[in-house]
Amino acid sequence: xxxxxxxxxxxxxxxxxxxxxxxxxxxxxxxxxxxxxxxxxxxxxxxxxxxxxxxxxxxxxxxxxxxxxxxxxxxxxxxxxxxxxxxxxxxxxxxxxxxxxxxxxxxxxxxxxxxxxxxxxxxxxxxxxxxxxxxxxxxxxxxxxxxxxxxxxxxxxxxxxxxxxxxxxxxxxxxxxxxxxxxxxxxxxxxxxxxxxxxxxxxxxxxxxxxxxxxxxxxxxxxxxxxxxxxxxxxxxxxxxxxxxxxxxxxxxxxxxxxxxxxxxxxxxxxxxxxxxxxxxxxxxxxxxxxxxxxxxxxxxxxxxxxxxxxxxxxxxxxxxxxxxxxxxxxxxxxxxxxxxxxxxxxxxxxxxxxxxxxxxxxxxxxxxxxxxxxxxxxxxxxxxxxxxxxxxxxxxxxxxxxxxxxxxxxxxxxxxxxxxxxxxxxxxxxxxxxxxxxxxxxxxxxxxxxxxxxxxxxxxxxxxxxxxxxxxxxxxxxxxxxxxxxxxxxxxxxxxxxxxxxxxxxxxxxxxxxxxxxxxxxxxxxxxxxxxxxxxxxxxxxxxxxxxxxxxxxxxxxxxxxxxxxxxxxxxxxxxxxxxxxxxxxxxxxxxxxxxxxxxxxxxxxxxxxxxxxxxxxxxxxxxxxxxxxxxxxxxxxxxxxxxxxxxxxxxxxxxxxxxxxxxxxxxxxxxxxxxxxxxxxxxxxxxxxxxxxxxxxxxxxxxxxxxxxxxxxxxxxxxxxxxxxxxxxxxxxxxxxxxxxxxxxxxxxxxxxxxxxxxxxxxxxxxxxxxxxxxxxxxxxxxxxxxxxxxxxxxxxxxxxxxxxxxxxxxxxxxxxxxxxxxxxxxxxxxxxxxxxxxxxxxxxxxxxxxxxxxxxxxxxxxxxxxxxxxxxxxxxxxxxxxxxxxxxxxxxxx
Length: 897
Prior knowledge:
The protein is α+β, with helices and mostly antiparallel strands. The protein contains 16 helices and 42 strands.
């Protein structure tokens, strides 16, 4: 398809519903009548334990994107609170796509509906099932007032998506069938289906590993092959999903005179990732605002002061709380916004001055009664500041880092408002889309001299090519807009043309919400109303965020947070870092742990003293990201005096226990590998990161199996020497579970050797002969069908004649023994199938390389092979689960949901 059709309202009818209360039938939700108290569907049962639902049928199969709940004109105890939404092509096969909650207010709420599965395949919908879980009032009937939906209904496009989804489902089933066949040693039908289906069930390197390890038992070659898998990038997805931790390194480079930027907070930073240069401008140093400009070369580990005063060079005046953005295509730096000494001095006396603070608790946290604590009483404006009459003009500057104008400033606009741009703001956010040559500005507090009223800016776009501003979202707080804020974070995914906006402060409240803004269709979507409740960071002010578009990860460096009592301005005892992983599926939050074992606890105590391995907690700092090296750089900010080292460089002045910093850090996100032990429900986190740990663990598993086979095939002395010389060196003896598993290997050495492989496993009754159980691969055998074998079994007393299920188990009698044997060991048992060598297996194993392996050995090797695949991405390996899982899910299906 050339383009994706736009979303339109989707029409529907009521297919079914559970019983309703009185006159409040399901047909009422078709109409939006917020003033009519009777225009609603109410379930027939009170309380939150009754199973109630309403099933909607779209007029035609569509791609459902949003579902909106209308509400009554005032809060109501019957309003639905928690709910789930299921969708599907048929009413008998529905999947959950949303678990959400509604506020007890009068504002309609729209929810994005997941329409892309975990395999990134879009799927259509015909039926929508809404399952209320609770109402806002206890022991009230749950009510739904109005439901509307939007999505894609273009018939040609939807049919195209339907065919793709059906092909995906067919492929998934086929992959499970193929996996099942190979697990059962049916290699000939496996290969026959594979060749006829013109598909692959896994990466060719995985297939080679199966041949080498399972069929040939070439253990050394299997170990070498793990290196090949690593170098081919097959472990990358697993490593990315492993738990991240921060590897910090303090940067001590200076300029040629031995100087570095002075301590400051509220400064601006940006990065030229092409040349590896970090730029820093301005900020506040406890005495005045600055307008110096510095550059740090990551390649040479050296600072350079580019300007002592940018204002004296026709650039920005001294300022803080402004923003810089680097355009990689042109090499230009853009500067917008400010808070200056003059601005702060004009704050009314009753609204300025040093914030009151108290030091309480073992961590000596800093509680700030004012939302913006970096602004103490300031002296009169400096001589370098613009004329007082122009204080509230929003200047827009450009700095050239390349070309003939390198090192020069240009004022693009003396006042962006006159060009349709934002007013004078501070604590906003600004990003550049270098490919599309568009700059985006969102939020920030408006600076106009009125400190008694909170005013904010909306979302603006600036075309670098045309020099024109455009407002994308006004600041008015409509149901479909992003709530206004300042001190927040914003990053851009240029591949999907999406902005991510999170956190910050609105009036006196710290925020923990997160939104996306699709720039292609100018639509805002709420991802989290409270990401703290979803396992993410606390509500935060002046947190910093950066994005890795390739990895689809956002890294958040927290600042001031809300404490357990709800007070703002709490500076935690350590620098909180978080990772948000996003994509087509719902995003997840993960805490980025400091390197080592010191922060495995939820809230570890700070570690003051010399040789700090990571930065102390702070706010009003800045962070930038090198997309090439995937390294983050943090500079300055405000820190508590109680959490500093003796060698931390800072400003001499302090404001009630807060000091400005000029420490400079580099951080990389590494991955600690979560490795499964013998029990699949247990995992253990190891400190060794990267693919090396995967290869070590894989080597241990391979040699473990090799030792088990040596216990059966070789002398005890040879097996014991192998255990000590080859298995022990690849064991992580710091891992208690792995050490215990290693010690348990001695039981294989002492166990009696198994009998020679037999076509009929010894677990079968002696009365069962090969004529009764022919090989599924043999050409001869009984003509009796499997169905005949089951129907000729003697029926037990009390067994329903219709074959239906029953909860009653009849007592066993002696005459039932033969029937029990037949039931326990049906003709096509997995054990029997694995007991016969497939002709293709013998061909791949090679002639003259020993006899066929036993069923147990095949099962053991297959188990080791599949355990190694946990390190490989889903689409590089055979599918997870099995056909038996599908049977179990079908047998245990809950028809009420």
